């Protein structure tokens, strides 16, 4: 009985967390804020690291999957990319795709 109750509680917790993520219109922006350390504010890099602003969602998710699998060499991205769920990465990619690169379109 305890296992059944614990399983039900975990299911409800998971569902409520998923609803909370879907309900927050700023979640993609908030998750993407962690990328600013290297890729610049709103994905506009100031230097040698590629900018993300305006990059298509498909291209960004492809690159992230290459980092996750180890197919693309990296210093830190292979670790960072594994710290997000697929749905969180979708939100981050949507956010950066909607940003305007400094100097115009990509």
Write a compact overview of the structure shown.
With 106 residues, the chain is mainly α.
Keywords:
mainly alpha; Cytochrome Bc1 Complex, Chain D, domain 2; 58% helix; globular
Q: How would you characterize the overall build of this protein?
A:
With 106 residues, the chain is mainly α. The protein is built from six helices and no strands. The protein has one domain: Cytochrome Bc1 Complex, Chain D, domain 2 (Orthogonal Bundle). 58% of the residues lie in helices and 0% in strands. The longest helix has 22 residues, at 2-23. It is globular. The mean pLDDT is 85.
Topology:
Elements: H1 2-23, H2 27-32, H3 36-39, H4 57-69, H5 77-80, H6 86-97
Helix pairs in contact: 4-6
Helix content: 55-70%
Identify the overall geometry: globular
Name given to the CATH architecture? Orthogonal Bundle
Head-to-tail CA distance between termini: 57 Å
The third-level CATH topology is Cytochrome Bc1 Complex, Chain D, domain 2
* Helix segment tally: 6
Task: Indicate the structural class.
Answer: mainly alpha
């Amino acid at each position: 009985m305890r296992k059944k109750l614990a399983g039900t509680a975990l299911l409800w917790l998971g569902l409520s967390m998923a609803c909370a993520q879907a309900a927050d219109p700023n979640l993609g922006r908030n998750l993407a804020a962690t990328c600013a350390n290297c890729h610049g504010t709103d994905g506009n890099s100031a230097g040698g690291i590629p900018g993300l602003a305006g990059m298509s969602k498909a291209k960004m998710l492809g690159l992230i999957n290459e980092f996750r699998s180890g197919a693309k060499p990296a210093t830190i991205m292979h670790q960072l990319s594994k710290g997000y769920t697929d749905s969180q990465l979708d939100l981050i990619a949507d956010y950066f795709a909607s940003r305007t690169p400094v100097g115009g379109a990509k």
